[in-house]
Write a structure and sequence with these properties.
By secondary structure, this protein is an alpha+beta fold. It has 17 helices and 21 strands.
């Protein structure tokens, strides 16, 4: 009755004052994000999932997967209402949920599942297709994956945001419009449908009232590109956006002090590290382990953490998040600039050296700048080269970057999935490896149980012993939420950096 009276009053007001009421009605059904990156059309297509968490900001809205992480469930039934594995570990069978349709009205079928897998070319595509012998359509509701050999990581690679392989797109529509057409007007089976996209400005989505799980309560989502942190916070204060991603340092302190705003930190499996990309070049200073170790000792990680993320991030000695299955508890590197300078002198660089460029995703330029400054103190001179995120990961994948690269990944998975992307010789972002490490990576791929875990941990120990990387932290992603939002979705899915599930979002009652 209260809701009916409210609707009646709104209709009367509309008749009395005309168009002036429309903005208020539209705002009641909309949540707007201030996004810290420039959104890229490549992130509208799960087939090109790059092994980082960023595109899942879009996937959880536009698309759906057979299974995916959800609140309280690491792997929740989604487009598949159930699944099972054969006792010998060679067959995985998925039962599709009945009556589910894509946004264009096409039903979700086993043909779409088979097509989506065969079309997939993103992170871990090679290992998935090496290990899957066939995808078989059993009947109109069942699809079967046959493996060449038992692979205990199949559901980790296929069913979590370690990859985008399990996210389903409509076969007939993709074949009709092509890959480029799909990026321009994506069609999925998620809780929101594509409305419009203005590159560099905004992505607009509208609610899919027929979403199988439940109809979204918020009618419209807007992702507004605001690269500058200060501008994002100002927009949040003015009510121009309802959620602002990635507010750090002094601005995060200001957010905490602002009445009506809430700081929402999320600890994610977002490990950040420096890759010494030239360490496999015998002529490079980075080929000397002492130089790589010096760089590790030059970084005051605790000071960076306090300055940038108010101490919420977790300092790490590994590129593998400590909560991942099979993670080895790597020792932390102490801050010891005196020892770092000594190591450089022993390596033949008593006055330091020109190390070229440090490339980074511009969204984390602050972190890279801090690293550059600390390395400079011990004599390692670097020029900062920030790149927009899509361009950065594209060039990283194409092996176009060099010298030192700051990398971060918040993708889900386990130690094996992270190694596959960044350490294995065929990894999508691997710049080099070592024979002993590569041999063990191949060995663990066919192992099981405690023996496999021991091999995975030995790999991580060797990475640390060789100082292949300079790990920095597991990121605390600091976000701001405005007063119009009752449920932001931040933190509902443990480890997920962004708002999700979108159908669970709610606006505060007036």
């Amino acid at each position: 009755m209260t809701r009916s009276r409210g609707l009646f009053r709104a209709l009367v007001a509309l008749l009395l004052v005309g168009y002036t009421v429309l903005p208020a009605i539209a705002a009641d059904g909309q949540i707007t994000w201030g996004v810290h990156i420039s959104l890229a059309p490549t992130w509208f297509d799960p087939a090109e999932a790059p092994g980082i968490i960023t595109p899942f900001m879009i996937y959880y809205a536009l698309h759906d997967a057979l299974v995916k992480p959800m609140p309280g469930q690491r792997l929740a039934p989604s487009l598949a209402e159930s699944w099972n594995a054969s006792p010998d570990g060679l067959v995985y069978e998925f039962i599709l949920r009945k009556g589910v349709k894509f946004h264009n009205g096409d039903p979700v079928t086993p043909e779409d599942v088979k097509f989506s897998f065969e079309r997939y070319k993103g992170a871990a595509a090679q290992v998935l297709k090496q290990k899957v012998a066939a995808v078989e359509i059993v009947d109109p509701q069942r699809v079967r994956f046959r493996l060449k050999q038992p692979w205990p990581d199949f559901m980790t690679f296929y069913g979590t945001p370690a990859t985008g392989a399990g996210w389903i797109v409509p076969k007939k529509y993709v074949e009709k419009v092509g890959d480029d057409g799909f990026k321009k007007a994506p069609v999925g089976a998620g809780p929101y449908r594509f409305a419009s996209f203005t590159p560099g400005v905004e992505l607009a989505l509208e609610a899919n009232e027929h979403y199988w799980r439940k109809p979204p309560s918020v009618k419209a989502l807007r992702f507004r590109v605001i690269p500058d942190e200060g501008t994002r916070l100002a927009a949040l204060k003015r009510g121009e956006v309802d959620i602002a991603y990635s507010i750090r340092g002094a601005l995060a302190e200001e957010l905490k002090r602002t009445p009506g705003l809430t700081l929402k930190p999320a600890i994610i499996p977002g490990s950040f590290w420096l890759l010494f990309a030239d360490q496999w070049d015998a002529k490079s200073p980075w080929a000397d382990k002492r130089v790589r170790l010096a760089a590790n000792l030059a970084l005051d990680r605790q000071a960076i953490n306090q300055a940038e993320t108010l101490g919420f991030s977790r300092i790490t000695g590994s590129i593998i998040p400590k909560d991942f299955e099979f993670a080895w508890p790597a020792p932390l590197y102490p801050y010891d600039p005196k020892k770092a300078a000594q190591l450089l002198a022993e390596a033949g660089y008593p006055n330091g050296f020109d190390a070229g460029e440090l490339y980074c995703d511009i969204s984390y330029e602050n972190l890279a700048e801090a690293a550059v400054n600390y390395l400079k103190v011990v004599g390692i001179q670097l020029k900062l080269r920030p790149l927009e995120r899509a361009a950065f990961f594209s060039q990283l994948k194409e092996k176009k970057l060099s010298h030192v690269i700051q990398i971060g990944s918040g993708a889900f998975g386990n130690a094996a999935t992270r190694l596959d992307a960044f350490v294995a010789s065929a990894g999508i972002y691997t710049y080099g490896t070592y024979p002993d490490i590569e041999g063990l990576i191949q060995e663990q791929a066919s192992g099981v149980g405690a023996k496999r875990e021991a091999v995975l941990q030995k790999i991580q120990q060797l990475m640390h012993d060789k100082a292949m990387f300079a790990p920095i932290w597991e990121l605390a992603f600091l976000n701001g939420v405005g007063p119009r939002v009752a449920e932001s979705g931040l933190g509902l899915i443990p480890g997920h950096a962004y708002s999700a599930p979108y159908e669970d979002l709610r606006l505060a009652p007036k």
